[in-house]
Amino acid sequence: MTRRSRRALPAVLAALVLLAASVLVAVCAIQLALGETPLLSYESVAGRLSGTTWSALEVAVAGGVVAAVGLVLFLVAVVPGRARTAALDQHTAVSVRGLRNALRSAAQVDGVESAAVKVRRRRVRAVVRTRRSVVDGLSETVRTALEHRVGEFALARPPQVVVRVKALRSTS
Q1: How many CB atoms lie within 10 A of CB 70?
Q2: 3-state class percentages of the chain: helix first, strand second, coil last, to nearest 5
């Protein structure tokens, strides 16, 4: 049960382009029905296009742009998004955001000033900051706390825990 992110941005962009083209056609059709001069004249567009050959540079550039946009939209649709849940078993999952928040609070052991945690499919990376001048053993303490919290979640595929300790410099 892995939920993936939605592809909202490419869908919105494609919808806006189609909406703009539809509004332009509708405005021109209404203007013609009312007997006014259309915003975009059919005769000028048809005359410009009929005078253009298939071997013209403008046609090649426009075709390349349309093909590139189509390829990007196709790849965005086919490549899976980032998982938003981590599987506990076949039918149960926990949100990656909730797991990250729980691990961030578990990393707040004695001596840790702040912690940043990134949860990926196979790895949990934690960067902890401390004001200690000697950081011996802090990495192992944080790793043990994180592994214990990951074990409490009983994930189907427990990730590898990687901890990095940064000592904050004193301002005095």
Answers
A1: 10
A2: 50, 15, 35
At residue 101, the pLDDT reads 92
Q: 15-45: b or e for each residue (b if 16 or more CB lie within 10 Å)?
A: eeeeeeeeeeeeebeeeeeeeeebeeeeeee
CA distance 146 to 104: 8
- Cα–Cα distance, 47 to 36 (Å, whole number): 20
Query: Residue written as tokens 């192992």?
Result: 140
- State the pLDDT at residue 12: 85
Helices (H), the chain: 8-33, 42-50, 57-78, 96-106, 138-153
C-beta atoms surrounding 126 within 10 Å = 25
Residues in the chain: 172
11-51: pLDDT as tens digits: 888 889 999 999 999 999 999 899 998 888 888 888 888 88
CA 155-93-158 angle, to 5 degrees, is 15
Q: Which residue from 148, 126, 122 is spatially nearest to 138, judged by alpha carbons? A: 126
pLDDT beyond 60 at 170 = no
Question: 52 and 58 in contact (C-beta within 8 Å)?
Answer: yes
